[in-house]
Write a structure and sequence with these properties.
This protein has 1 helix and 6 strands, in the order E-H-E-E-E-E-E. The strands form 2 sheets. It has a 4-stranded antiparallel β-sheet with strand order 1-4-3-5. A hairpin with a 7-residue loop joins strand 3 and strand 4. It is elongated and about 55 Å long.
Length: 99
């Protein structure tokens, strides 16, 4: 399982790479809402001050017995550029070496 925060962090990195690739391109795409639908496992620990953690479940994986339950959630993320309300633009190859 992967922490939900890691999934969102990796998505942000991929989108930032696409935004960088869009610079100087003649054709760009405005990035609208990004929707993620994932299966998550909610894990509660019995320790004092414990937190609830969200883990993204890999395809075909089962939740373990005990205090872990699996739920499907859908997140709608609206990307904006830092310091503005502007929508970013993406295009071009994901890697500068791709053609």
């Amino acid at each position: 399982m992967i922490e939900l925060a890691s999934v969102i962090r990796d998505l942000r990195a991929e989108l930032e790479q696409a935004i960088t690739a869009a610079e100087g391109e003649a054709l760009r795409f405005e990035l609208g809402p990004v929707e993620l639908e994932v299966s998550v496992a909610l894990e509660r620990t019995a320790q004092a001050g414990a937190k609830v953690r969200f883990w993204v479940v890999e395809s075909g994986a089962e939740a373990t017995a005990g205090t872990t339950t699996t739920q499907r959630i859908k997140l709608a993320l609206q990307p904006t550029l830092t310091g503005t309300n502007a929508h970013p633009f993406v295009s071009g190859p994901a890697d500068a070496h791709e053609q």
